[in-house]
Structures are given as C-alpha cells and as structure tokens.
Amino acid sequence: MKDKRLWESKLKIYDDLVAQCPRFVRKGKAMPYTSANGYMFSLLNKSGEIGIRFSKPVQQNYLKKFNTTLFKSYNAVMHGYILIPDAMLDNLGLLAELLNERFDYVMSLDAK
Question: Three-class SS of residue 7?
C-alpha cells in the first residue's frame, strides 16, 4: 500500500473488529489474519482491504447483498473470500457477527 498511514488506519479497524470477537485472536504481522481449526477465515491484504471467507452459497448471497466482489490478495483472486466494502467498515457490529459466523463454521469442519 502506497500510504502507510492509510494501511495502519485499516489495520486498526481490523484489530478493533477482531477485538469484538473474544473466541479468537488476530495472527500475523505482515499479513494480519484470523484462523481456527486449521482454516483461515479473514485477512487484511497489503492494500488495506478486508476479506472474509464464506461457503459458496453464502458467498453468492453476500456478493449481491453487499454489492461487492471476490477478494484479492497479492493480485490473486482468493476464491471463497469476499471483499468487505469500505462502506461496511463503519458497522463493526455486523462485521463481528459475520466473523463469529465464520468462526463457528470452521470449528464445525474436521481439523486440518
């Protein structure tokens, strides 16, 4: 990201979001992410964008509902992840619900 201050402001938002979810913690330094049970389910890319992983049916619904696209990191599309639009960053409560939903989902899978 060209502007380090902008990335740091997005990192603070991501950290504030994860802090609302006490069942898991943020990991990573250069690429902050959350994971559980061997599955990553959210991350902050080098462009300061947040991606959250969803199952295919849920992903299709949220792509339309949130008017967004698939998430990219290091110029690669991360299938299964949607880009969280900047307009949603003001609603950390909703985003925390989504992260908790994803945590529950990955905990229901067989551990890697």
Answer: helix
pTM of the predicted structure, to 2 decimals? 0.93
Domain count, the chain: 1
pLDDT digits (tens, 9 = 90+) for 40-51: 999 999 999 999
Q: Whole domain around residue 46: which residue ranges?
A: 4-108
Q: For position 80, which CATH number holds? A: 3.30.1460
With beta carbons less than 8 A apart as the criterion, state whether 97 and 84 touch. Answer: no
At 35-87, the pLDDT tens digits run 999 999 999 999 999 999 998 889 999 999 999 999 999 899 999 999 999 99
* Helix, strand, coil content of the chain in percent (nearest 5): 45, 25, 35
N- to C-terminal Cα separation, the chain: 32
Report how far residue 103's alpha carbon sits from residue 93's, in angstroms, rounded to the nearest whole number: 15
For residues 54 and 82, give the distance between their C-alpha atoms in angstroms, rounded to a whole number.
8
Cα 55 off chain centre by: 13
